[in-house]
Amino acid sequence: MKEKETDRFISVQAVADKLSCTEHHVYYLIREGSIKAIKIGPRAIRVSWNSLQEFIAAGLIDPEDYFAPDDPDPELSSNIKTLYSNWMKR
């Protein structure tokens, strides 16, 4: 028989610590449906570990797309004008 993978559930505070954000932001992510959570009592909410991992994986960036290339296009840089305020001319 194939064993079914079980999901762990962690607190909102633990998710906030893992994502380096506030608990308020974690609640926002839950409300918008980005992270799945369950209610285990009148006030207690737990977040699905698998859902959190999927959220993190979906947000990964490709460094080549994120950072500027090492060799910028010289034609592009010649079109960029630098603006100076009057106090810099003194």
UniProtKB/TrEMBL annotation:
Pfam families attached to this UniProt entry: HTH_17
Which residue range or ranges hold the Helix-turn-helix domain? Answer: 11-58
Q: Name one GO molecular function term.
A: DNA binding
**Which residue ranges does UniProt annotate as crossing the membrane?**
none
Source species, domain of life: Bacteria
Output this protein's name. Answer: DNA binding domain-containing protein, excisionase family
The species this protein belongs to is Syntrophus gentianae
Upper lineage is: Bacteria, Pseudomonadati, Thermodesulfobacteriota, Syntrophia, Syntrophales
